[in-house]
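I am still learning, so would you mind making up any protein sequence you like and the tokens describing how it folds?
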Amino acid sequence: MTKNGHRPKIVVIGGGTGLPVILKSLREKNADITAVVTVADDGGSSGIIRDYVNVVPPGDIRNVLAALSELPEIYLDIFQYRFDTSDRFFAGHAIGNLIIAALAEMKKGVFASVQELSEMMRVDGHVFPVADEPLVLNAEFSDGTFLAGEAEITAARKSIKRVWVTSNEKNEAEMPAAVPEVVEAILGADQIVLGPGSLFTSILPNLVIGNVGKALAETKAEVVYICNIMTQKGETEHFTDADHVRILNAHLGQCFVNTVLVNTAQVPEGYMDKEKYDENLVQVEHDFNGLREQHCRVISSNFLKLKNQGVFHDGNKVVEELMGLVGRPNHELRHREHS
């Protein structure tokens, strides 16, 4: 809560495992949270369910619901439980994914089902799937070739030039749109947070939807990007922090990212389990001049958390910075070229 007692409206956009880390810490700060979650995931349990049931992929939605839920821990453990690989029929499926898929069928749409499930799970905030239909992620690579599908795009391990989303329905000419609630949340926000998460497969699939990009261009809120700590295989290999922001701005056709949070702490050599976290390659290199050229305010600090031989953002440290920013007048933050 800010000094004047206002409960800040913070919209967090993304997907993947990084998003819940930030949401849990934000919840402790009594922020009015809206989580906007991608519906273009086609991997893991989410992808299998999507292949057999005509619903959006539920995995990221499940993790966000759990992060914002006030249910007792035992209920959340059941919701998050993933069946063992030896269980043949249910192998690898999370119970929450099955519940979301069932509710989406019952309610004839994932958006309504997630709102109902949010009430059932006593969610503190709002969880909005960015669209009410499953979307397909498409990519053009630097060599001029194209691929569709998140898993296929990252498996190609090529340099990605741009991404966009199309409807899963047969009428691909009709461009998908975000649900009105997402646009309203962006326009009414005090702060918009992008990430942390996979640049091309978790963050951009939300932003490249036409009415989302338009709302981000029009919002008076500060747009903060939490830059990834590690480069990611098949997505951001050899990327600097400035490269991440350059790609975001290029997709929306303007410098819309106002502030970038950059981790400067070093991961101890040999710490990370590279088999378990095989998507992570090396630490993102810094290019502060490149960030300033894009009119970004740069906040560099130790945002690193080491856990279970993996590299993560420290949610509490990140949120301390976010809350410090949200308490300042927007006009102090929107127009600047300094770090």
In short: The radius of gyration is 19 Å.
